[in-house]
Amino acid sequence: MPIINVQIIEGRPKEKVAEVIQNITNAVSETLDAPKETVRVIVTEIPKTHWGKAGKPMSEQ
To answer: Does the model's pTM come out above 0.85?
Structure first.
């Protein structure tokens, strides 16, 4: 059973999160010849205050 963890900055519409889950499921299923029912995708949304880039939180950029 493939398990894929995705971390993204919070704030995207739920439809986009659902779309990325579907696209990742399809790609992994096709690449690994695994039934889609066995593919697990976990999306974790990180607050912008907890995501750093170039030494600063994304909330300050």
So the answer is: yes
